[in-house]
Amino acid sequence: MGPNEFEYVLDDNFLADFEYSPVKKANVGVRLQMNKTENLYDLKFHFEGIVSSTCDTCADEIDIPIQKDFEMLMKLSEVSNFEDFEIVYLARTEIEFDLTQYLYESLLLAVPQRKNCNELAISKSCNPEVLKLLEQKEKEEDENVEGESGDNSDPRWNKLKDLLN
Questions:
Q1: Angle, CA of 132, 135 and 141, to the nearest 5°
Q2: In the chain, which end has fewer C-beta atoms inside a 10 angstrom radius, N or C?
Q3: In the chain, what are the domain boundaries?
Q4: From CA 35, how far away is CA 33, in angstroms rounded?
Q5: Could you give the CA distance from residue 47 to residue 64 in angstroms, rounded to a whole number?
Q6: Which one, of 135, 116, 136, lies nearest residue 56 by Cα?
Q7: 24-28 long-range Cβ contacts below 8 angstroms, 24+ apart
Q8: Would you tell me how many other CB atoms lie within 10 Å of the CB of residue 45?
Q9: Is the pLDDT of residue 50 over 70?
Q10: Cα–Cα distance between 18 and 108 in angstroms, integer?
Q11: Closest to 42 measured CA to CA, from 32, 50, 51
Q12: How far is the CA of 80 from the CAs of 3, 39, 74, 98, 135, in angstroms?
């Protein structure tokens, strides 16, 4: 009963258990503060560390700093029920609960959706060779679109373009 503290490390070995994980490398420490009462477990997780991923722009390997807090409530009841997203109901007969899936999903939620070299704590520029290739490809696509639009243009669109001038 009362407050309890636990520490975990989410690393490459932890992630190896998840076959199709978008994150393959990590070194994230998790501090769990659990306050246990007679019928309720209040869990507070603090994630802090580094996750390796690829830049969305240039596909270079980058280290993304992670610092995020999550909370979870576990309530003792007559039967286990995991359908509620806010509270996990555990049967009183349960003597252990595996947090592996919750820790994995929380780690993925802690990783920013947009991963870019410029947006890191220690900003670095994207790979110039890849940026040059992307720019070249974009120019080629623009030229193809311009070449096609002259042949198959719909006269209604031309009238709309006149409104802009």
A1: 140
A2: C
A3: 2-119, 128-164
A4: 7
A5: 13
A6: 116
A7: 24/52, 25/51, 25/52, 26/50, 26/51, 26/52, 26/107, 28/66, 28/107, 28/110
A8: 22
A9: yes
A10: 12
A11: 32
A12: 23, 13, 10, 13, 55
Q: What is the pTM of this model?
A: 0.70
- The C-alpha atoms of residue 112 and residue 53 are separated, in whole angstroms, by 10
- Confidence band of 30 (pLDDT split at 50, 70, 90): very high
> What is the C-alpha to C-alpha distance for residues 15 and 18, in angstroms, rounded to an integer?
6
In order of 47, 88, 100, the CA distances from 76 in angstroms are: 26, 9, 20
In the chain, the amino acid numbered 113 is: Q
What are the tens digits of pLDDT across the range 115-160?
Answer: 888 766 666 777 777 777 877 877 777 777 666 555 556 777 777 7
Half-sphere exposure of residue 164: CA atoms within 13 angstroms, side-chain side? 5
Quick: pLDDT tens for 89-116.
Answer: 888 877 778 888 889 989 999 988 888 8
